[in-house]
Amino acid sequence: MLNKNQKLNPEIFNKDVKQVAIRVGFGEGLLEAGEKDENIVGLCADLTGSTKMNLFADKFPNRFIQIGVAEQNLASVASGMAAMGKVPFISSYAMFSPGRNWEQIRTTICYNDVPVKIAGSHAGISVGPDGGTHQAIEDIAITRVIPNMVVISPCDSIEAKKATLACAQTKEPTYLRLARENTPVITTSESPFEIGKAQELFSTEKKADVGIIATGALVYRALKVAERLSKSGVGVKVLNLATIKPVDKEAIIDLAKESRAIVTVEEHQIAGGMGSAVSECLSKHFPVPQEFIGVKDLFGQSGTPEELLEHYEMGESHIIGAVERVISRK
Amino acid sequence: MLNLTDDKICILERKANIIRQSIIKMLVEAGSGHTAGPLGMTDIFTYLYFHALKHDPENPSWIDRDRLVLSNGHICPVLYASMAHSGYFPVEDLKTLRKFGSKLQGHPHREFLPSLENSSGPLGSGLSQAVGMALAMRINEGKAVNKVVYCLTGDGELNEGQNWEAIMLGGKEKLHNIVTIVDRNNIQIDGNTEDIMPLNDLINKWKSFNWHVQDIDGHNFEMIDDAIGKAKAVFDMPSVIIANTIPGKGVDFMERRHEWHGNPPGKGPEDKYKKDEQEKEALKRLHTLDGKIKCEHE
Lengths: 330, 298
Known about the structure:
The complex is a heterodimer.
Chain A: E1 19-21, H1 22-36, E2 40-44, H2 54-59, E3 64-66, H3 71-83, E4 87-93, H4 102-111, E5 117-121, H5 139-144, E6 150-152, H6 157-167, E7 174-177, E8 182-184, E9 199-203, E10 210-214, H7 219-231, E11 236-240, E12 243-245, H8 249-259, E13 262-269, H9 274-285, E14 290-295, H10 305-311, H11 316-328
Parallel strand pairs in A: 2-3, 2-4, 4-5, 5-7, 6-7, 10-11, 10-13, 13-14
Antiparallel strand pairs in A: 1-8, 6-12, 9-11
Helix pairs in contact in A: 1-6, 3-4, 7-11, 8-9
Chain B: H1 6-30, H2 36-40, H3 42-52, E1 67-70, H4 76-86, H5 126-141, E2 149-154, H6 161-172, E3 178-184, E4 187-188, E5 191-192, H7 193-196, H8 202-208, E6 212-217, H9 221-233, E7 239-244, H10 278-286
Parallel strand pairs in B: 1-2, 2-3, 3-7, 6-7
Antiparallel strand pairs in B: 4-5
């Protein structure tokens, strides 16, 4: 059942659950952060509306810089502004930032160690009809590998807003992974959020037979699977791993100790993603069987989000299959 | 003109000579690194650090200082030598260049030397950072901002597309407090710039992006001073000074040769001098009393 302490949306399993795009939470969070702190500036590479930075840009035109379609410049201009004491948020599609401008992020932001916040919208395969060129499914891997970087992948718009507000106050370069599509609202304004802290959203009274660790928009599917499994008598816990770096080792190890079987769920390449981060932690501290839900070394293509998640084996049936496999490996 | 008297020119010429000697010595000690670029840009760096730059080596984080952003990080020996002789750190530390644990990393890293404005090495990112600094200054202080962001770039470096993104933005935003100085030495690692990737009409390229452009002799302190003065006087437009320099300047057997771009004395081409004679011969030419560089204003 849903963890009461998490104060989650009680209508989460209803068919008409409220849906809001995760990027909307970023836009609202940036506006609020900008009202609180005049050092916050926004920079965008010609995608102000799509990334929802328009809310900030309209309110604070003097603190907004339109960079044009130039993501490499976007990253390094932000670095220069941060060196002068600003807290720059930069936004584009994740495929272009941190995709195209990876080296600029590495050298001018992370190596310089300045507090630039990189909002990568339209991450994941659910971008859909735009096709494979626009589906960022490598972004977690390329950001979490850079020293000094913090990587956050919120599960819904409310958590995205909290993550935006939280990282506006930290000194670390931070990657915020955002999605385009409407996503069921899981959390509420009262749900706890802390950078670096995983949240246990679901647990059965019965000791967990399996631990599901999910991130981003697929947390919702993980919860639906957990609900189904619990009804058929399987003990299950679901961890929302919103911060992928630094990873919450304690929560992951505790879950592995109880369940002895882990399934990770993410809309990202299996190689180098959140599941890899979990595996790196468990291999060292408490090795248990693990199954990975994610993209299997393939590019995406056009389709509806639902079609693509099914085709690339990230649907609910695939998560259930992974649970069965991992339990059988114990 | 920024009060550059003949006496001051004389002092700058002597200082530049000392910095060139330090560059040779530190490169020999390191056993690797770049020679031609640092020697070619020594006069510009000397002018900036010992005349134009508003800075305080005793208080490197002074908030109202000018900012100096080195984009082509590989010419850092001239940056480090200029900083050491200005008093940022002891001149003896120059011998630690490129050594383990040194504050003088092979390419500048601000974590090791916090008085740097930026880390650099991968080419083409410095101008973007300088534009960002100038934008932040304008947000803070409006158009009356009187701090200058100096950005030093190479000419080969202008092959990088990111520069042109930054040049577009600088022109669009009319950032009058940026002064970019392009080291137009016509060489890059693989050969001459116009063979590797022609820059062609650099002056009109910058002009067409709405920059104020000046083209000068990068070894003439009067011309450098005049150009910086004019650049500071321009309003509503960023400035670029294309400084025509001689790579390897001051050491005749290194001058204008791309083979000296990435080699230290002791590892350069041997057509004139054997490797073990290169340091001695270079220093001989730089020693003021040896007559190679005279103070013309004495």
